[in-house]
Amino acid sequence: MPNLPALEITDLRKTYDNGVEALKGVSLRVEPGDFYALLGPNGAGKSTLIGITSSLVNKSAGEVKVFGVDLHANRSEAMRLVGLVPQEINFNMFEQPLDILVNYAGFYGIPRAEALVRAEEELKKAQLWDKARKMSRTLSGGMKRRLMIARAMMTRPKLLILDEPTAGVDIEIRRGMWKTLKEVNAAGTTVILTTHYLEEAESLCRNLAIIDKGRIIEQGPMKTLLAKLDVEGFLLDIDGTLPATLPTIEGATLLAEDAHTLDIEMPREMDLNRVFAALAAANIRVRSMRTKSNRLEELFVRLTGQPEQAA
C-alpha cells in the first residue's frame, strides 16, 4: 500500500439530472503522506469532486481509487480508508464530545471498548479531553472544529479530506486549526484540503490542483506553480505624503494606496535598487516595504481570470 497513490482519480465525470456538467474528465493523483490543496472558484466542481471521493455523490463516469481500492467496486473497503470533515458542523449539539466520537466509531463497526480508548486518545490530541463530558453546544467555535477532526480520525483514516475547514472562523481559530492539521499530516495521514483562504493553501500544502469549470487547469508542486509568476507586488510605507504625480518607472506600475502608502507591481527580475533610486529622485522616501498579496492568489487570478471564492 505505501507505493500506491493515496488518491488516484482518472477521467472523472459528473452530469446532474438537470443537465449541469459539473466534472468534465478530471484526473489527479495524490501521493501518500502529502498535504494537497484543491482550489477553484464557486461552481468549479470542488464540492462535487469531494462528494464523489467521499461516496456522497454518484459519479457519471471515470475511476476513483483510494490506496489502490476502487471506490465503485469496493465502496466499504475504500471508505474505511477515508475520513471526511465537512464544512458545516453536523454533530448533535446536545451530545457530549465523548459520545459523539464513540457513536461515530460504532457506525463503522468498532467495538465500544476500543472506541472509548480511541476517543480518549483523539480528544487529548485535539486538546478537548477536559471537555469530554460537557455539552457540545457549550464548546467554542474552534473547539467544535477540532471535534470534527477528532471524529473523522476515529476510524484511523489513511486519507483525511477537509472541505473548507476554517470557513467563517477568525484568524486565531484558523491558525489553531493549521497547527492541528500539520500534526495530523506529520503523523502520517494524507490530507486533502479545499479552501478559499489562499494563504492557507500556500502555508500548509506541498502540492495543489486548481479546478475551474469542471476541469483541472493546473496541478503540481506548490513551489513550481508559484515560480511561474513573473510579477511581484509590494506596498511601500512612505515618510511624509506622496506627491500628486507619481514618477514613471519603466516596467513597473505605481498606484497611491493612500497618502502614505505606495502600491507597486514589478517584474520579479527587476532590480529593486533601480526602483528605490527612482523614488528617491522624486523625493519619495521609503520607510518600510511589505508583500502586497500572496503569490498563490496572483496565480489563481491569472489562470482563471477571477478571484478565488468559496464553493
From TrEMBL:
Residues 7-238 form the ABC transporter domain. Coiled coil: none annotated. One of its GO terms (molecular function) is ATP hydrolysis activity. It holds the Pfam family ABC_tran. InterPro entries: AAA+_ATPase, ABC_transporter-like_ATP-bd, ABC_transporter-like_CS, ABC_transporter_ATP-binding, P-loop_NTPase. Keywords: ATP-binding, Nucleotide-binding, Transport. The keyword Nucleotide-binding applies. Signal peptide: none annotated. It comes from the Bacteria. This is ABC transporter. It comes from Arenimonas malthae CC-JY-1.
